[in-house]
Design goal:
Elements lengths: L1 H41 L5 H9 L5 H11 L5 H10 L4 H7 L4 H25 L23 H28 L3 H10 L4 H9 L4 H12 L5 H10 L4 H8 L3 H28 L1
């Protein structure tokens, strides 16, 4: 047990500097372009799903939270909101960067999520008409972004928070492997590969960065396939879902949005799994 704890801690400490570096760069970009991003998406019009999807590629859930508030006030369309949710990667990118993952794999993940988000966003806007614009009330743009103390301290907070999740998830995985349960865990996802996207999409819906940490670590451990990872990351928009349920008073609409995100994530993962066998 002590060896498992020490190995997990040492592995985590090795990536800690890289994790902070990734978060610092992300925070810098997010603070530099957040205002411009908000203005762009407000004026996007019919191109909202495309621009929202591109801006949603920036990791962490800050932009998806902002998009949620813009949707609640009916500044953006449902298709734009869904596009942002699907393209958002939460903590996936900094974890992959910290682990030194192949850049091609990272780009494949980002562009796959972006493509699915944009296509689904345009389809949703085509079939569902935009509602009338309501009176704009206060937007909680900084909710859950923890940026009130500046970029440096904010990046440290994100790093510590994510490091704790990585440590706990890695410890759990190492413990399972130590006691010979790795094959059982692989069996759940790999031997039932047609069911895996439905399970990972459900995990992705957990409104916390821990969901993307779990999924990414499972992928890095060779337990999750690419398609199952995509399915889970498509549904993982961080705390944005919590903000939606708190700020949008239409409960039925919130549940429909939640079900829609899950359906898109699970079906997309399944189609990618089928594609991997055909091509």
């Amino acid at each position: 047990m002590l060896d498992v704890i020490l190995d997990t801690l040492l592995d985590g400490l090795k990536i800690l500097p890289f994790l902070w570096g990734a978060f610092f760069l992300i925070e810098l970009l997010e603070h530099k372009f957040s205002k411009q991003g908000k203005e762009i998406i407000e004026k996007s019009g019919r191109f909202g799903p495309l621009l929202g999807g591109i801006l949603g590629c920036f990791p962490q859930c800050g932009f998806s939270v902002m998009a949620t508030n813009l949707y609640v006030t009916r500044i953006i369309t449902l298709g734009t909101l869904i596009s942002v949710y699907l393209s958002t990667s939460d903590e996936m990118l900094p974890i992959l960067l910290a682990h030194g993952s192949d850049g091609i794999i990272i780009l494949q993940l980002l562009f796959t999520k972006l493509g699915i988000g944009v296509v689904c966003g345009f389809l949703i806007d085509f079939f569902f008409k935009r509602r009338e614009v309501n009176q704009i009330h206060e937007l909680c743009e900084n909710e859950n972004c923890h940026c009130e103390n500046g970029i440096f301290l904010s990046s440290i907070k994100h790093t510590i928070h994510t490091f704790v999740f990585i440590f706990l998830v890695s410890f759990g995985l190492n413990l399972i492997m130590f006691y010979g349960g790795s094959e059982y865990l692989r069996g759940i996802f790999q031997n039932n590969h047609w069911f895996s996207p439905f399970l990972t999409s459900l995990i992705g819906l957990i409104p916390n960065c821990g969901a993307s940490v779990v999924l990414t670590e499972l992928y890095l451990s060779g337990i999750l396939s690419f398609s199952s990872l995509v399915a889970g990351l498509l549904t993982g928009s961080g705390v944005a879902i919590l903000v939606l349920f708190r700020t949008n008073k239409d409960l039925k609409e919130n549940i429909k949005i939640l079900c829609l995100i899950y359906f898109i994530g699970a079906v997309s993962g399944l189609l990618l799994e089928v594609g991997s066998y055909l091509f």
